[in-house]
C-alpha cells in the first residue's frame, strides 16, 4: 500500500464513493415516479411492486457469487464491469415501452449493483489499512447512505421538469465519472491463490437467497400465510441450509463461512444488518408521513429528509474516528443507543406534531444509524483476510440487504395492521371504507372525492399511530442489539492491538 501515492489513493476513494452513490439512488429514486409510470405504462399495482422489488431481489441474490468472483478476477475489473452493466440497464429502463421492460431493466440494475458493491468495499483493503481504512469505509458508507434518501429529492426534481425516464438517466453521468476515476486511479487487486470455481455453491446461494427474499418482499401484499409466500420462505431456507452444508464440506469453499466464527466479523455484520433494518424501516414510514400527514409534495419530502442524511454522515465520521482510538465495540454500542433514543423520540410523534419535531428525531436517529453502520462495516472488513475481502464482505452485504428487505416487509405488516385497526370506518359506504383501509394516501384521496374531511383527519391520526408503533418496534430491536453487543461481544483483535 505504501507504493501507492496518497493522492492516487484519495482519487480512487472518490471513484469508489461515487459508484455507491448510484446504488443508493436506485434503492429509493423509483418510488416517487411510480404514480406517473402507472399512468404512462398502464401498469397495475403488481407491476409497480415488481419494478421496485426486482432490483432488491437480484442485488441480494447475487452478492455472494460476485464477491468471490471479484477476489478471483480482480476487484477493479469487476467494478468496471458492474458499472458498465449498471449504465446499460439504466438506458434500457429510461426508454422502456412497457412495465415488463422496466422490471427487466431494474433486474439488470440489481445485477450491476451486486457486482459493484463487494468489489468496491474489497478494493479498500488494497488501498488502506488501520485508521485510514476506517475513515475510507466511513466515506464509502456515507456515500451510499446519502444516495438512499437523496433518491426522492433528485427524483422529485426531475419529475417536475422532465419525463420519468430521467430518473434512470441520472445514473449515466454518475457511473461515467466513477468509471473514469476507477480506471485511472484504482490499482488492480485479487486473491493470488483463489479457490476453484464452485458452480454448485453459486446456484445454491443465488436460488436460496432469491427465493427467501422473494417470500419476504411478497408477504406484505399476499399475507405471511399465503401458499406462495410459505413455499418461497421454506424453499429459500432449505436451499440456504444446503449451501451452508455444501460450503462447509468443501476444501476450497466459494465463501469462507468460517468467518462467522470470528466475533469481530460476526458482530460487525450483525450490527450493520440491524442498522439497515432500522434505516429501511424509517425510510419506509417517514416519507409517507411527510406527504400524507404533513402535506408535503415529493420534492419537499425529499428535502425534509436532509436531517437524516446529515445525521448519517456525521455519525459515520464520529464512529470511525473513535474506533481508531478505542476499538469498535463501544462506538457501535453508542450508535445503537443513540439510534434507540432517536426512535423513541419519534415514537412520541402525534398527528399535530410539527416538522421541527420530526427533523430532530430524524437527525438523532441518523447519527446513531450512521455510527452503527460504519462501525459495523469497518469491524467486519477488518476481520477479513485482504486476499478474500470480496467474498468476505459479500457475506456482510448479503446480511444487510436481507435485513433491509425484512425491515420493509415486517415493519410494513406492522404498519398496515396497526393503521387498519386504528382507522374508524363505521357508517361509511362499503367502497369508501375498503379504499380508506388500503393506505393513508388512498383514504385522503377518497375522503376528498366523497366530501368527507373527517375521514382524512382520522386517517392521518391512524397512520401517525401506526408509524409510532413501527418506530417503537425499531427502538426495541436497536436496544436489544446494543445490550447484546455490550454483553457478549469481546474486544476484537484490532481493539486488543490498540
State the main characteristics:
single chain, 498 residues, mainly alpha, Growth Hormone, Chain: A, 81% helix, disordered C terminus
Short summary of the structure?
Helices cover 81% and strands 0% of the residues.
Architecture overview:
This protein is mainly alpha-helical and 498 residues long. Helix content is 81%, strand content 0%. Helix 3 packs antiparallel against helix 9, helix 4 packs antiparallel against helix 8 (171-185) and helix 11 (263-293) packs antiparallel against helix 19. It is globular. Residues 494-498 have low confidence and may be disordered.
Order of helices and strands: HHHHHHHHHHHHHHHHHHHH
Structural class: mainly alpha
Count of all domains:
3
Strand residues, percent: under 5%
CATH topology of the largest domain: Growth Hormone, Chain: A
CATH class of the largest domain: Mainly Alpha
Topology:
Blueprint: H1 6-28, H2 34-40, H3 45-73, H4 75-94, H5 99-127, H6 130-161, H7 166-169, H8 171-185, H9 199-222, H10 227-248, H11 263-293, H12 298-303, H13 306-326, H14 329-346, H15 355-382, H16 389-422, H17 430-438, H18 440-450, H19 453-488, H20 493-497
Amino acid at each position: 500500500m505504501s507504493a501507492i501515492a496518497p493522492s492516487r489513493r484519495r482519487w480512487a476513494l472518490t471513484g469508489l464513493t461515487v459508484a455507491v452513490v448510484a446504488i443508493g439512488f436506485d434503492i429509493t429514486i423509483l418510488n416517487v415516479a411510480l404514480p406517473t409510470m402507472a399512468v404512462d405504462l398502464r401498469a397495475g399495482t403488481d407491476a409497480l411492486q415488481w419494478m421496485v422489488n426486482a432490483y432488491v431481489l437480484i442485488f441480494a441474490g447475487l452478492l455472494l457469487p460476485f464477491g468471490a468472483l471479484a477476489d478471483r478476477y480482480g476487484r477493479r475489473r469487476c467494478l468496471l464491469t458492474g458499472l458498465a452493466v449498471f449504465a446499460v440497464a439504466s438506458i434500457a429502463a429510461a426508454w422502456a415501452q412497457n412495465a415488463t421492460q422496466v422490471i427487466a431493466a431494474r433486474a439488470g440494475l440489481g445485477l450491476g449493483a451486486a457486482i459493484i458493491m463487494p468489489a468496491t468495499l474489497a478494493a479498500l483493503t488494497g488501498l488502506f489499512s488501520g485508521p485510514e481504512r476506517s475513515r475510507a469505509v466511513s466515506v464509502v458508507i456515507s456515500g451510499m447512505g446519502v444516495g438512499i434518501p437523496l433518491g426522492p429529492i433528485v427524483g422529485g426534481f426531475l419529475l417536475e421538469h422532465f419525463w420519468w425516464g430521467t430518473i434512470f438517466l441520472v445514473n449515466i453521468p454518475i457511473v461515467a465519472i466513477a468509471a473514469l476515476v476507477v480506471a485511472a486511479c484504482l490499482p488492480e487487486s485479487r486473491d493470488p491463490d483463489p479457490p476453484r470455481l464452485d458452480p454448485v455453491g453459486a446456484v445454491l446461494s443465488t436460488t436460496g437467497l432469491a427465493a427467501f427474499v422473494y417470500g419476504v418482499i411478497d408477504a406484505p401484499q399476499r399475507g405471511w400465510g399465503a401458499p406462495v409466500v410459505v413455499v418461497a420462505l421454506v424453499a429459500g431456507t432449505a436451499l440456504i441450509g444446503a449451501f451452508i452444508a455444501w460450503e462447509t464440506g468443501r476444501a476450497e469453499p466459494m465463501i469462507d463461512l468460517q468467518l462467522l466464527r470470528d466475533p469481530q466479523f460476526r458482530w460487525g455484520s450483525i450490527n450493520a444488518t440491524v442498522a439497515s433494518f432500522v434505516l429501511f424501516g424509517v425510510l419506509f414510514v417517514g416519507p409517507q408521513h411527510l406527504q400524507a400527514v404533513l402535506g408535503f409534495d415529493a420534492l419537499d419530502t425529499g428535502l425534509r429528509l436532509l436531517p437524516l442524511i446529515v445525521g448519517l454522515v456525521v455519525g459515520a465520521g464520529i464512529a470511525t474516528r473513535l474506533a481508531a482510538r478505542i476499538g469498535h465495540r463501544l462506538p457501535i454500542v453508542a450508535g445503537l443507543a443513540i439510534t434507540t433514543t432517536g426512535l423513541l423520540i419519534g415514537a412520541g410523534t402525534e398527528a399535530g406534531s410539527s416538522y421541527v419535531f420530526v427533523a430532530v428525531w430524524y437527525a438523532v436517529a441518523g447519527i446513531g444509524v450512521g455510527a452503527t453502520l460504519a462501525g459495523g462495516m469497518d469491524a467486519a472488513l477488518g476481520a477479513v483476510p485482504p486476499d478474500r475481502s470480496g467474498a468476505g464482505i459479500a457475506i456482510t452485504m448479503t446480511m444487510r440487504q436481507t435485513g433491509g428487505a425484512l425491515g420493509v416487509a415486517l415493519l410494513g405488516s406492522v404498519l398496515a395492521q396497526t393503521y387498519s385497526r386504528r382507522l374508524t370506518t363505521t357508517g361509511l359506504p362499503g367502497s369508501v371504507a375498503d379504499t380508506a383501509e388500503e393506505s393513508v394516501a388512498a383514504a385522503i384521496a377518497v375522503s376528498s372525492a366523497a366530501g368527507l374531511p373527517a375521514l382524512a383527519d382520522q386517517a392521518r391520526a391512524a397512520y401517525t399511530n401506526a408509524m409510532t408503533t413501527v418506530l417503537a418496534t425499531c427502538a426495541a430491536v436497536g436496544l436489544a442489539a446494543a445490550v447484546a453487543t455490550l454483553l457478549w461481544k469481546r474486544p476484537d483483535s484490532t481493539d486488543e492491538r490498540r
